[in-house]
Amino acid sequence: MNDHQKQFETVIGLEVHVQLDTQTKIFCGCPNVFGKAPNTQTCPVCLGLPGTLPVLNQQVLLHAIKIGLALNCNINTFIKFDRKNYYYPDLPKGYQISQFDYPIAQNGHLDIPIKGEEVKRIRINRAHIEEDAGKLIHDDAGNCSLVDYNRTGTPLIEIVTEADLRSPQEAYDYLQLLKLTLKYLYVSDCDMEKGSLRCDANISIREKGETQLGTKTELKNLNSFKAVKAGLEFESERQKQVVLAGNRVIQETRLWDENKGITFAMRSKEGSHDYRYFPEPDLVPFTVEEKTIQEIKEAMPELPSEKQKRLISQYQISKYDANILIQDKDIALFFEQCAELCPHTKKICNWLNGQLLQELNTRKNTFRDIDLKPQALTDIILNTENGIISNLAAKDIFKLILDTPQSVAALIEKKGLAQVSDDAELTKLADEIIEQNTKAANEFQQGKQNALGFLIGQAMRKTQGKANPKLIGDIIKRRLIDAQ
Amino acid sequence: MKLNQRTAHELRDLIKSNETSVDKIYAAVRTQIDKSEKEVNAFVRLQEHNLQDLKPKQDLAFPIPIAIKDNICIKENETTCASKILAGFKPPYNATVIDKLLDSGAVFIGNANMDEFAFGSSTETSFFGPTKNPWDLKCVPGGSSGGSTAAVAADEAIWAIGSDPGGSIRQPASLCGVVGLKPTYGRVSRYGLIAFASSLDQIGPITKDVTDSALLLNILAGHDPKDSTSADCRSINLLNTRNQRSKRSSQNQEIPDYTQSLIEDVKGLTIGIPKEYFVEGMDPEVKDAVMASVAILKDQGACFKEISLPHTEYAVATYYIIATAEASSNLARFDGVAFGLRERPSQIRKNTLVDMYEETRDKGFGMEAKRRIMLGTYSLSSGYYDAYYLKGLKVRSLIKQDFDTAFEELDAIITPTSPTTAFKIGERANDPLSMYLSDIYTISANLSGIPAISIPCGFSKKGLPIGLQIMANAFNEEMLLRIAYSYEQATEWHKKRVNL
Predict the structure, then answer these.
(1) Which residues of A touch B199 (CB under 8 A)?
(2) Predicted local distance difference test score (pLDDT) of residue B446
(3) CATH fold of A423-483, please?
């Protein structure tokens, strides 16, 4: 077979680190907050000063169990921590407290949406609890490196997939759903820009039909969802070119350069790392009772994919609309509140997924920032449906309400936005328009349908949008046909 | 008798009856230090107190001068583990036991010398030079808490605290003729104790008699929320530890008042003598003293039986695998980055960071510390882990099982504390294996987590003290104190004082 006819398959596995949203750090009482002045959120314990000891934050464990359950994992009730030993200036103890042979969660899966109604099952190998390290800041001007220990001891969960992803797009979709799922659990804000979600990828290629895995590279420095996709696309293509050129892919760690749009090999470290894992003697292993797991299970919120399915069947909306709604748990809830008040569920979706998102975008707000009442939106929809206001007026009212919450009815009244639907009044208007636009009127009579639109437009302009466009159109048509 | 030669409980009574005062006791101790410290070298550094600071302590429970081993953190006070690598390190916090001692009125005399990071059985590996045995200045005081035991034996402190990962309280107590108690693992908080071997370390009292041992243990013992390995006897929590479930019922009480155990009564107690502890290499004088002690306790009504602790021969090997593995990881933080010594490399060999690590650790650690870091790193390395560390953990549980089985029908076990009396300075310094064997009788208690005490039980012909070790089941320090106290009532060994 000619090389150029070779069909390749990309194989990807992801390791995702998620910072957990807790009041305090994982092993000490320091606040778990982001963005403070360097080395202000520290204490002897997270600085690893001699003689200090870790004490596990119970909230971390509860969050981790929730995540494990949401990812359909088996939960290890035997809780044990291990030390991962390595030297780096951002790691003050010279070891990271992690979980080695008893990860909190194992053997789960996340079903990501693919074409049409189908989903693809991405298996989760494991998820384990560990502590974050500090941050090194390289000061080239001062020719030195500085360490900020604020992040040291931030609770993390590392979620590792099997090599089940087959394209950069799938990797992207998996990450999106993972992020959404975690946000539904209120365990992390999953903000890649702030580093609260970090992703490393293992990627290899192989010929279609091959069952053995190819040599993988590990991709790091993927600092946004877009970077994950772009980095993997580049790396997949690069590996293909390597193979097509008759060379072998080298197992190595590569960094994604966002600006240049390429990956490059990281300077190899001296020898391979031997982390010398062993049980953390400062934390006594213990067991969580099944009852506790059961309680957490029962208190689990509805997860994104479940919510999507339910919204579709309960409100007869499209999969497309439901998918947009569930991207924000608060908007999905708002949708359901509106649906209680108004039967036009499709219209509600249109408003929320169109006008609302557009407004939030221009205002740089999240749904939580604005004060929109379900009643306000459904009033707008009902008034539009009943022909009281035009679509145009409806959009104006919507904006005004986002600016200052107020009654829709009062606003229609105050601004005089109600449509003119009175037959006599509209007939009079139609005659005026025909008279003033004889050219267009003649064209319509000669069969040019477009001319009607022009005439309606003129009527709307004359009435500043208050004429009911459907009615005025009908009347103009009738008058012109009658006149023939 | 001079004030500094008295016990803490005697001094407390004298203060209460207005026969002496805190400043007089302190002055007596300082006088002794001025006289003998140059020779003994029990302290790495001394703390000065002025009388105004001492006065308010007068009304507290135990305003008694105490020596603190140099691996227990005292806030804003240099604490170095007798190592160069921690030179200048002033912890911004107190160890939990230090807070407890301050609450009781304690007057800190100084940081007691020790083997560097507690790596040793002779206090010879200290960066600050060896401590001498007050009974014979040519001999070692034992170790690693040799500074603490020598200070008490030389009357340079009324009592002291040490730490005991493998015998480091009991063996030097034995060699210095004082009482040293290693509590059950988890009985005393380790928060602020600079770790050597986290799963083995315990802080404990070093005193002139058993009564003081009980009194000091009263101050030290108790659950600490800052130490997850400290036993919480009362907690009802969502998270039940396996450990807690298997603990004996006596643990479900608060910490007992240990002075309640100071009763002269061993009638009906069954005490085991493990045959594995009386074998070749043992100094006959030590054996004779221990057997004589057994006879005294028999007279008092205790029953003795020979028992077997079959895995004893593996204890030293197991200990040195587990302890060094933990130490290699615990000492990783001494890397020159955030605290302690930092050496700048004179030339770049690998890269600035790695060179700095290597230079700092090369200059900062002594020989024995380096040896143990390498041993531990080796046994944790991939390819060796199963054969060494993992096997060590398995043998450790067998050793613990030996004791669990024994205590099903025993109240206590009696052995020598050390196979020999104090040896000459330098005698074993270049022979690590013979040094490691100094802990042959004390190590098993650490591996099993059980409490053990060493009390004076005689003197050799050369006038060197001999120690008797009593071990009891986990969280049964009361049994140790009861047997030790009964024995003490029938003997005078604890009253002998060195005159320096």
Answers:
(1) 281
(2) 98
(3) Arc Repressor Mutant, subunit A (1.10.10)
What chain A residue is nearest to B241 in terms of C-alpha separation? Answer: A286
Tens-place pLDDT, residues A391-441: 888 898 999 999 888 888 888 888 777 777 778 888 888 888 888 988 888
Question: Across chain A, what does the average pLDDT equal?
Answer: 92
pLDDT at B247 exceeding the cut of 80: no
Nearest CB partner across the interface for A51, out of B193, B199, B228: B193
**ipTM for the whole complex:** 0.94
Q: Does A282 touch chain B (CB under 8 A)?
A: yes
Q: Are A262 and A234 in contact (CB under 8 A)?
A: yes
- Residue B244: the pLDDT is 38
Tokens, residue A471: 């009615």
Chain A's closest residue to B351, CA to CA, is: A270
Residue A477 pLDDT grade (very low, low, confident, very high; cuts 50, 70, 90): confident
Of the partner residues A51, A58, A276, the one whose CB lies closest to the CB of residue B73: A51
Cβ pair A287:B240 closer than 8 A? yes
Q: Domain limits of chain B?
A: 3-225+247-311+400-495
Q: Is B329's CB within 8 Å of A276's CB?
A: yes
- With beta carbons under 8 A apart, name residues in chain A contacting B393: 279
Nearest beta carbon to residue A55 from set B190, B225, B335 = B225
* Domain formed by B3-225+247-311+400-495, architecture: Alpha-Beta Complex (3.90)
User: Chains A, B: CB contacts under 8 A, how many?
Assistant: 129
The pLDDT-based confidence of B233 (bands split at 50, 70, 90) is low
Q: Evaluate whether A467 touches A476 at the Cβ level (below 8 Å).
A: no
Three-class secondary structure assignment of B427-481: CCCCCHHHHHHHHCCCHHHHHHCCCEEEEEEEECCCCCEEEEEEECCCCCHHHHH
- At A410 the pLDDT is 85
For residue A64, which residues of chain B lie inside 8 Å, CB to CB?
none
What pLDDT does A393 receive? Answer: 84
Q: Which residues of B336-355 are buried (b: 16+ CB within 10 A; e: fewer)?
A: bbbbbbbbebeeeeeeebeb
Query: Residue B310, Cβ neighbours under 10 Å: how many?
Result: 14
User: What's the rounded Cα separation, in Å, for the pair A131 and A113?
Assistant: 32
Q: Do the Cβ atoms of B385 and A278 come within 8 Å?
A: yes
Q: Which member of B73, B242, B350 has the closest CB to residue A286? A: B242
Query: Catalytic: B144?
Result: yes
Cα B394 from Cα B382, distance rounded (Å): 18
- pLDDT tens digit sequence for B181-227: 999 999 999 999 999 999 999 999 999 999 999 999 999 999 999 99
Name which of A98, A269, A278, A283 to mutate to probe chain B: the one with the most chain B Cβ atoms within 10 A of its Cβ. A278
Specify which residues A85 forms β-bridges with: A95
Q: For chain A, which residues make up each domain, given as ranges?
A: 3-292, 305-415, 423-483
Query: What is the reported pTM?
Result: 0.90
* C-beta separation of B413 from B471 below 8 A: yes
Q: What DSSP state is assigned to residue B139?
A: B
Tell me, yes or no, if A139 comes closer than 8 A to chain B by beta carbon. no
CB contacts of B339 in chain A (<8 Å) are 49-50
Report residue A200's pLDDT band, with 50, 70 and 90 as the boundaries.
Answer: very high
The mean of the pLDDT values for chain B is 94
Residue from B36, B122, B144, B448 carrying the catalytic annotation: B144
